[in-house]
Amino acid sequence: MPAQYKGWRLSTKTMNGKLWLRWQHPDESFARYGCTIDPKDILSTIAHVRFSIDLAIELEEEAAKQARRYQG
Questions:
Q1: How far is C-alpha 29 from the geometric centre of its chain's CA atoms?
Q2: pLDDT tens across 5-22, in order?
Q3: What top-level branch of life does the organism fall under (predicted)?
Q4: What is the C-alpha separation between 72 and 35, in angstroms, rounded?
């Protein structure tokens, strides 16, 4: 079972000899986002992915608030 963070699916994939950490939005069917994993600094890679997901969630929430504000 793949790992998850706040509903986002996390997976790894080897491409061109490099290991990538990829993350997928809960409403999408594929991992749109990814970055290479630095084997010497895995914790920084994980922190970057968590920050990116948290930011995406925050932006989606703000966009939803704005949409509600303009609808009514």
A1: 13
A2: 999 999 999 999 999 999
A3: Bacteria
A4: 40
Q: Could you give the CA distance from residue 56 to residue 21 in angstroms, rounded to a whole number?
A: 17
C-alpha distances out from residue 9 to 30, 46, 51, 67, Å: 9, 13, 15, 26
Write out the DSSP string of 35-68.
EE--TT-HHHHHHHHHHHHHHHHHHHHHHHHHHH
Residue indicated by tokens 């409403």: 27
Q: Are strands 18-24 and 33-36 parallel, antiparallel or unpaired?
A: antiparallel
Strand partners, 22: 11, 34
Residue where the block lists tokens 């290479």: 36
pLDDT digits (tens, 9 = 90+) for 19-68: 999 999 999 999 999 999 998 999 999 999 999 999 999 999 999 999 99
